[in-house]
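Hey,
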Amino acid sequence: MRLAAVLLVLLPVTSARAQDSLETKLVIQQGAREIGREAFTLTQGRGRGAPGTSIRATAAYPANSPRLRLSATLDRTPESALAKFQLDVEGPNGPTVILAAGSGARLIIRTVARGSEAGRELPGGPDVVLLDDQVFSLYSAVADLATPAGKPLTAVFPRTARRASFVARREPGGAAGARVTLTGDIHGTLSTDGQGRLLRLELPESGTIVSRAQD
């Protein structure tokens, strides 16, 4: 009962502006085989009229009769600082809610699962991005921080507390969107459209390719 109450309180509130946003759908492939689908919205502005950006994403593995569902919320300030992160996971082991908040050089992560609640503190800061191995629209934040000279970043994966150091280099030229090369602990390429939404992501080490759905 206590977990159900926590889940109800922590459900993300969707603003009217987010509801009006165009939903983007992604196909997730691994080894040339589709393993899941994701849908997300990226909006300018956060809840209650606050400035910044907001990503709302849902992912299902597999797309039909999924055994794993994930819902993510990532709100950032105009300076790209973390304002809110929430990841809801529905899998064989029951529901789990993961929250992350930044406070200066600290990143505080809290996990609420069936019958348990835990918290941990990790190094944070302006060069830390929050990612997940199965919610790929979060990589849009990496494109925002990338620079032509290469921006050193640290990725934190809140589900596992894994950290990865990498460099995000924005390639010159191109269309209205961005193309970014990732080197280091995360290796690959990503591209976004003119609105900053993820268009394609390739992670060769895991054989993962994320692309826009055609249907």
